[in-house]
Amino acid sequence: MSKIIKFSTEQMKKIVPSFSVEGYSHAPEYLWKSLGGLLYIPATKLTESFLEKHIIRADEDMKSVCFDLEDSVLPEEKSKALEQLCAGLDFLDRYIKEKGTQVNRLPYIFVRLDTANAFSYYNRIMQSAFTSRNEFLGFVLPKFCPYTGMGYS
To answer: pTM for the complete prediction?
Structure first.
């Protein structure tokens, strides 16, 4: 049985600091509510037809997704998954440019990096034009803590 935990504004400020985007200041509870649940999708699934059906035409209740390059991808498929992810991000960017206002709101998009290859993956992913769009919020660093943090350097 799951338990719903409600945080006060003061508690939320300690957990998630305020942030500002393009001059708008957002309270931490706004970020918490706007992201909703984070749906993880293996990067190996990111074909154009999958992206069009499940991301571009996503239900408005889907607030955020995370394209996963870590646990959901077999070690021998990591390189292929990275290229599929980058091709998928490029497809999303082209699709939005071509269709313009016909595209509904996209969910916020994160990418979960593979611990062992985090920064080489980061450099490749940032070459995609989609990463400059407002829908791309950033990266998830798996298993990050003070003890594992040095592995990301």
So the answer is: 0.73
